[in-house]
Amino acid sequence: MKIAVCVKEVPDSGPLRRIDPDTKRIDRSGDKSLNAFDLNAIEEALRLKEAGGGGEVVLVSLGPDRALESLRKGLAMGADRVVLISDAAAVGSDLVATSYALAEAIKRESPDLVLFGQQAGDSDGAVLWAAVADRLRFPVISQVSELEVANGTVSAKRQTEFGYDRIQAPLPAVLAVSDALNEPRYPSLKGIMGAKKKPQDVVSLADIGVSADRAGYAGSRTTVTALNSPPSRGDTQKIEDDGSAAQKILEYLVERKLV
Amino acid sequence: MSTLVFLEHHGSGIQKPSLGVLGKAAALDPDTSAVIIGSGVAGLAAEAARYGAARVFIADDPRLEAPLPQTRVDVIAGLVNSHGFGNVLFGASVLASDIAGALSARLDAGLNWDLTDLDIEGGALVGKRSALGDTVLVDVGWTAEPRLGLIRAGSFEPAETAGAGAVEQVAVTLEDFSTQAQMVEQAHEEQTGPSIEEADVLVAGGRGVGAPEAFKELEDLAGALGGAVASTRAVVDSGWYPYQTQVGQTGKTVAPKLYIACGISGAIQHKVGMQSSQVIVSINKDPNAAIFDFSDLSVVGDLHEIVPKLTALVAERKG
Known about the structure:
The complex is a heterodimer of chains A (259) and B (319). Chain A is built from six helices and 13 strands. Chain A has 259 residues and is α/β, with parallel strands linked by helices.
């Protein structure tokens, strides 16, 4: 079985994350890593490959050349190769443009299964899989907390606001998995050493047949128009437990008449 | 301008978040229509009219019975193509997010998500959302029609306001790939015990609680405070605690007087379900846990030491 996993490099979370006031986009100049939610999708792809006794796990991503460094973590975990769409004309791509480029790259791979993590850690986006599935004309199942593949069919348990559904779809299909589905493995030393030698194809938009007007700002349909400070939560306090934290919490609650 | 609002239904009623969006849309744009998609749903049209819809489109077909996204994309895309709606809005949910994402691709239409407010500025629709863990608020716009928007649940309270509610039946044409995913078993809403939505005090546990047995410590504290125990998706998916106690995007939205978060990292999916709590106290070993960014009292420490001590202190005080 051939599995494509869509992954993304994101800025590390923490106080240094910011939006560039000039471009009004997330500042991507600081430390970066592979989107943590994508690790669950990679892990599941590796388990499916191992259980099925063969196949290939291909990481597909859109980003600058230097994103390869973050994507290598997926190779170190055990993925077989990377296809990275890297093109100056793709900078600023929103959902419309990103889903188009990814779908065109995935079509060239003809995978049996396309996996996504449950969200992007930077934009909090949780919609890309549905857009890519529509462009591929594949069935889609999201919020998957359990999955099985047998006889060309995927059976998935998904969680919604109302509880758990069980949904079946024929392959090829697109699935977005929850971060509770599995515990991603740590790359072994051997895996890390071997990652650099695995195939890492950096392709341009032209290589995958995407014209420049369908990518980047030109191919996008949304904008950010203004940045503002959020309302403050008021006075907040932070304490470290030195043995007296429980007492301090009690006093805090008593002051606010919550006990 | 004309606006279409997707109304999600479950059982015999329309979901509150989508009615809230309908009311807001009707206030901004008198030419607001609603669409209801399912099997045997004609009876829901009157409810849509009560919340401000000038027109209600009904797509009623046995193939639309299961609440799956792709068939609904076909219906809404057909309506947008035939009626030229400028805005298509959704109250966020698992189903609505999948529909909106796919519709963005189908129509090459811009989608802004996690919106907490909508406005008209200079004749154009503007969305408001917070970003980067709510450290910044951004105004977002669209460069072309139709403009697609997913609105965070709880952003708008449904308000009754009469709309004309002229009902139109929609002919349903589905793409071949849209019916490939099949519902094998649909979730039943389970209700046992008191609802966490009604408790004044919630003691919530995340994966950091460590083990299902350790939830006893949280139950003891909740008991002493006269509250209930809540949980996160990770805990529920792992089978540590029942689904009815889950707070967050795919669980319940709560707003108690006091929310004590124990061993919860503070992922956005959890946050959207509890950020309206009046006072948030968080206990976490990790000093960089995201939950501390939106807590009133942040406590860095081991919950297994702090929680039992706090339980004893509360019990002692109450005598």
